């Protein structure tokens, strides 16, 4: 695989925030990939840490990297979640789920004390919505859920893969919602969450505390969100 310098720079930089003994959330996608590789190096170099994965793919990669995975029943808290995004604005609001992992990603982000987000410069936007917003729906009567989404102007399209419906790790469908511009993300989030059949949406509005942006020359820039720290359980 050809190395993406911007994604690698951001992904590796995030791993520098990991302290020995932490429980780390492993994100999903081609940027979090570099974070997981770096964490693998830390583990093999002797750093004691444990991790939980946000997707079957990331779990597999973690195993290949010899990163210790802790069963969810034994998780006492997730110190740091490091994940990618499809879009991010300067308020650190995100669209996620381009790879279909949004549900597990949001569960882990919500349980984590801090979420760091790693992106390349192309993902930073003034306004969310150009990237179609992934919405995970249960397959039962998905056509009705689809119509409800269309009725609120979400312009849904069922995601396909090789001519078949894309199936998430949770056995659900993804409806990609072509808003083009999301003017009031909080309103959109509330609308989506109130439709029966919607399991989760890809808006992550209050999770990220730090955005790490990688550039093609290998440099990174960080944007920090100030405010009260969320606590993991
Ligand atoms: O479902 C996938 C995740 O939300 C990814 O974190 C997101 O799509 C970004 O992935 P990438 O870093 O490959 O662009």
TrEMBL record:
Enzyme class: isomerase
SUPFAM superfamilies associated with the record: D-ribose-5-phosphate isomerase (RpiA), lid domain, NagB/RpiA/CoA transferase-like
Keyword Isomerase found: yes
Keywords carried by this UniProt record: Isomerase
EC number(s) given by UniProt: 5.3.1.6
Record InterPro entries: NagB/RpiA_transferase-like, Ribose5P_isomerase_typA_subgr, Ribose5P_isomerase_type_A
Pathway: Carbohydrate degradation; pentose phosphate pathway; D-ribose 5-phosphate from D-ribulose 5-phosphate (non-oxidative stage): step 1/1
Swiss-Prot/TrEMBL catalytic activity: aldehydo-D-ribose 5-phosphate = D-ribulose 5-phosphate
Highest taxon, organism lineage: Bacteria
Amino acids binding substrate: 28-31, 83-86, 96-99, 123
Gene Ontology terms for molecular function: ribose-5-phosphate isomerase activity
Catalytic residue list: 105
Functional note: Catalyzes the reversible conversion of ribose-5-phosphate to ribulose 5-phosphate.
UniProt xrefs under HAMAP family: Rib_5P_isom_A
Oligomeric form and interacting partners: Homodimer.
Assigned protein family: Belongs to the ribose 5-phosphate isomerase family.
Annotated protein name in UniProt: Ribose-5-phosphate isomerase A
Gene: rpiA
């Amino acid at each position: 695989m050809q190395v993406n310098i911007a994604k690698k720079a951001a992904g590796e930089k995030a791993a520098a925030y990991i302290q020995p003994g932490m429980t780390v959330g492993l994100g999903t996608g081609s940027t979090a990939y570099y974070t997981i590789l770096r964490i693998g190096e830390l583990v093999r170099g002797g750093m004691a840490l444990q991790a939980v994965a946000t997707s079957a793919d990331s779990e597999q990669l973690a195993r290949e990297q010899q990163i210790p995975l802790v069963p969810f029943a034994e998780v006492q808290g997730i110190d740091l979640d490091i994940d990618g995004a499809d879009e991010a604005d300067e308020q650190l609001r995100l669209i996620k789920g381009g790879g279909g992992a949004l549900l597990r990603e949001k569960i882990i982000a919500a349980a984590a004390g801090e979420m760091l987000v790693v992106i390349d410069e192309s993902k930073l936007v003034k306004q969310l919505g150009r990237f179609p917003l992934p919405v995970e729906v249960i397959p039962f009567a998905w056509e009705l859920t689809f119509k409800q989404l269309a009725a609120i102007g979400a312009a849904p399209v069922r995601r396909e893969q090789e001519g078949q419906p894309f199936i998430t790790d949770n056995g659900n469908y993804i409806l990609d919602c072509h808003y083009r511009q999301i003017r009031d993300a909080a309103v959109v989030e509330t609308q989506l969450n109130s439709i029966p059949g919607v399991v989760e949406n890809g808006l992550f509005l209050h999770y990220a505390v730090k955005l790490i942006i990688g550039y093609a020359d290998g440099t990174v820039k960080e944007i920090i969100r100030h405010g009260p720290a969320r606590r993991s359980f």
